[in-house]
Write a structure and sequence with these properties.
By secondary structure, this protein is of the alpha+beta class. Helix content is 28%, strand content 24%. The chain is built from 19 helices and 29 strands. Bound molecules: ligand MTE, hypoxanthine (HPA) and dioxothiomolybdenum(VI) ion.
Length: 772
């Protein structure tokens, strides 16, 4: 009998399936994979013009350079010159025109990476520059939009605004964000004997790469196989934007007949790939004397860049998160998709949710200042009711909030973080400290879980049980560090009553589970975990049926636990013995599983429906200190209470909360993307783009998972998705900075502070503010 000590799989803080490999440097990424010696390497030639007519590309000199095998451009593509996720508007290589500074125009293929990179400089590109639209302001002025604004209206926004007692208005500019995954975009393509291609990529969406590569080469999907072992981070930046690297690598492999590797240089990666959309929010809101919101009129402008990418779905998420935690009876919400000659912006953790929420959070702070009230009180007045109250209210898009829990979470955090005393203490501190000022910021998060395109909410899995009792597991989700594989292993181990060490997940591959959605929208475990559960349960049921017949007992009473199969008689077989008996009895020990999320629906035209299966909730309180002479700020302490439902793995979930929070704080404080007047990204390396370091995390980061009950939907083991929601808890740090600055003026005015609140911007706001 093996497996006498069992790692109880569900709810255990089991370490990440690759933790040891990660920390010893043995985890294999695309650039680590050994390749045959005849392999070729690729470097991309990027446009230095934002908008222009592409007249010609001179390659002769480059072709003569040592080691160069080929130079590829749009003319070499046999099928479709497109790597877009949805709209068919992202050329692999620019053809006839360039649309952003950084766009791929050609690729050099050579026998080494260095040879390819040096030869890029020898290719001469002739471009006639054309006028370019770079900023959101310019796009608004020139009416440069991808389409008409999307408009979501509920109730009577104008009339209710006009008749409300207190009215505020304002604008907020919010910066974008570079993903800064530690592993850059990377792909290896190997030609197969029948004209097919096999790819190893760093992507959240292997199926889409399969499709894009096949369409580019003019071959069938069946002739392209795409696999992903792991990503060194994706954060949404590999949901659609890995397609380009994969297509170029596949083209090089097909053209040369050699295995081809493309790994973006960091500076190229930052120039070539889309980021979080920067946005401008213009709002007015009407309130009653208690600070209860009556009407919200909000325009959101997003810098989409030169094409759609996922912008439409992102804007829909921004619209459907403009209410965040608050019941808003009347609203007119519009989203404008600005078309600019800049890189096409894309998914980034939160997927429009952060830009949607920061608007209403800013409004809550502004109304608190206006009324001279505590911002936390104003927030609470406006909350959707907790499910336990028996009251249910509706979002502007028509979904009833059935699982509200923020009143409970907030009350708990107020106590555990000692909010009231600290508020007093900080006010006192600020009275005697004119230079260094402290601030508190509290922010709740309500985040909708499910892809807001309903059809994407499906997943498949494949489970094999081998005759020694070990289990092979494959599902459609990809591992990017978030711990998805670990959780799905726990789920399958639990079905069979096995230790997690008996279950192995192999690379995600289009050959095993077809037609998958991206691992995104935080639903990796919800979808793939459920599909894997079903596959495993199918096998378990077959085994139980067979063993019941064999031992003349009832299948329902056979228990799989602790590595054993226990019969109603009390007789116990080891799992492997049981498997062997089933195999001898010619029982299939392999099964697929499939899951699609129930109940959800959404209408893109009316912008109404119930797109989210449930909401994930969390609350955060950040305390900051600001040096009013330098503008420097620091998060001293953050208290977070987050609801992960019945957590499948509290260690991983806590890690997601910590990482998401810190990434959110980075977005709103130090991470600043700067473009010059001509649309060239100036911050294209870590030297000029500052992500949070370990030393930037709050000294005190107190993260707890909510351990009470919620009105949980029937998710996998009643857990809740946790990947993206905590990022938006980072807004509390921005709110805290604003709170710290607020006291600099003599009167109670609300500071005009845009994001990111860099030292420079804080200092400018303080200067301006002191004169008020
Ligand atoms: N955590 C790590 N370590 N690395 C990542 O790239 N991506 C985030 C989040 N957490 C990410 C991460 C994003 S954008 C999403 S959508 C989810 O993980 C995706 O994984 P899940 O659906 O399995 O939670
Ligand atoms: N999140 C991530 N990707 C998506 C979504 C979403 O909500 N909708 C469509 N693609
Ligand atoms: Mo996450 S932005 O949905 O990949």
């Amino acid at each position: 009998m093996s497996n006498s000590i069992i790692n109880t799989p569900i709810s255990s803080p089991i370490v990440h399936e690759s933790a040891a490999l990660h920390v010893t440097g043995q985890a294999v990424y695309v650039d680590d994979m050994p390749l045959p010696s005849n392999s070729v390497h690729i470097a991309i030639g990027l446009s230095h013009v934002s908008h222009g007519k592409l007249n010609s590309i001179f390659v002769d000199e480059a072709l003569l350079a040592p080691g160069v095998v080929a130079v590829l451009s749009a003319a070499d593509i046999p099928g479709q010159n497109d790597c877009s996720p949805v709209m068919g508007d992202d050329p692999i290589f620019a053809k006839n025109k360039v649309m952003y500074n950084g766009q791929a125009i050609f690729a050099v293929v050579a026998d080494s990476r260095v040879a390819a990179r040096s030869a890029v400089e020898l290719v001469k590109v002739d471009i006639t520059p054309l006028p370019a639209v770079i900023t959101i302001e310019q796009a608004i002025k020139q009416r440069s939009f991808l389409e008409n604004p999307m408009c979501l209206t509920a109730g009577k926004p104008e009339a209710e605004f006009d008749s409300s007692l207190i009215q505020i208005d304002g604008e907020l500019v919010v910066g974008g964000q570079e993903h800064f995954y530690l592993e850059g975009q990377a792909a290896i393509a190997q030609p197969l004997e029948n004209g097919g291609i096999k790819l190893s990529v760093s992507s959240q969406h292997p199926s889409e790469i399969q499709h894009k590569v096949a369409e580019m080469l003019g071959i069938s999907y069946v002739d392209v196989e795409v696999e992903v072992r792991r990503m060194g981070g994706g954060f949404g930046g590999k949901e659609s934007q890995s397609n380009l690297a994969a297509c170029i690598a596949a083209l090089a492999a097909q053209k040369t007949g050699f295995p081809a590797r493309l790994v973006y240089d960091r500076d190229d990666d930052m120039r070539l790939t889309g980021k979080r959309h920067d946005a401008k929010l213009i709002y007015k809101a009407g309130f009653d004397a208690d600070g209860r919101i009556k009407s919200l009129i909000l325009d959101q402008y997003f810098r989409c860049g030169m094409s759609y990418d996922l912008s439409k779905a992102i804007a829909i998420r921004a619209l459907t998160h403009a209410d965040n935690a608050y019941y808003i009876p009347n609203s007119r919400l519009r989203a404008f998709l600005c078309k600019t000659h800049t890189v096409s912006n894309t998914a980034f953790r939160g997927f429009g949710g952060p830009q949607g929420m920061i608007g209403i959070e800013r409004i809550m702070d502004q109304i608190a200042t206006r009324l001279g009230r505590d911002p936390l009180e104003i927030r609470k007045v406006n909350y959707y009711p907790d499910y336990g109250s028996g009251n249910f209210q509706c979002t502007p898009y028509g979904q009833i909030v059935k699982d509200g829990i923020l009143n409970t979470l907030t009350d708990q955090l107020i106590v555990s973080a000692n909010y009231l005393d600290r508020r007093k203490e900080i006010d006192l501190y600020n009275k005697s400290s004119p230079i260094k000022r402290r601030g508190l910021g509290f922010v709740p998060v309500k985040f909708g879980i499910s892809f807001n395109r309903t059809m994407l909410n499906q997943a498949g899995a494949l489970v094999h049980v081998y005759t020694d009792g070990s289990v092979h597991l494959n599902h459609g989700g990809t591992e990017m560090g978030q711990g998805l594989h670990t959780k799905v292993i726990q789920i399958v181990a639990d079905v069979f009553g096995l230790d997690v060490s008996r279950v192995r997940i192999s690379n995600t591959t289009t050959g095993k589970v077809p037609n998958t959605s991206a691992t995104a929208a935080s639903s990796g475990t919800d979808l793939n975990g459920m599909a894997a559960l079903r596959a495993a349960e199918t096998i378990k049921l077959r085994m139980a049926d067979y063993l019941a017949k064999l031992y003349q007992s009832c299948a329902d009473d056979i228990d799989f636990s602790s590595g054993s199969v226990i019969l109603p008689s009390g007789q116990s077989l080891s799992f492997s013995e049981a498997v062997n008996q089933c195999h001898m009895g010619r029982i299939s020990l392999s099964s697929t599983g499939f899951y699609s999320t129930p109940e959800i629906h959404w209408d893109d035209n009316s912008l109404t429906g119930s797109p989210y299966y449930y909401f994930a909730y969390g609350v955060a309180l950040s305390e900051v200190i600001v040096d009013t002479l330098t503008g420097e700020s620091r998060v001293l302490r953050a208290d977070i209470l987050h609801d992960a439902g019945h957590s499948i793995n509290p260690a991983l979930d806590k890690g997601q909360v910590e990482g998401g929070f810190v990434q959110g704080v980075g977005w709103l404080t130090t991470e600043e993307l700067m473009y010059d007047d001509r649309g060239a990204l100036m911050t294209h390396a870590p030297s000029t783009y500052k992500i949070p370091a370990c030393s930037d995390r709050p000294k005190e980061l107190r993260v707890s998972l909510y351990d009470g009950e919620g009105n949980q939907s029937e998710t996998i083991h009643r857990s809740k998705a946790v990947g993206e929601p905590p990022l938006m808890l980072g807004i509390s740090a921005f709110s805290a900075i604003s709170d710290a600055i607020r006291g600099c003026a003599k009167s109670a005015v609300f500071p005009k502070l845009d994001a990111p609140a860099t030292a420079e911007r804080i200092l400018m706001t303080i200067q301006e503010h002191k004169t008020l």
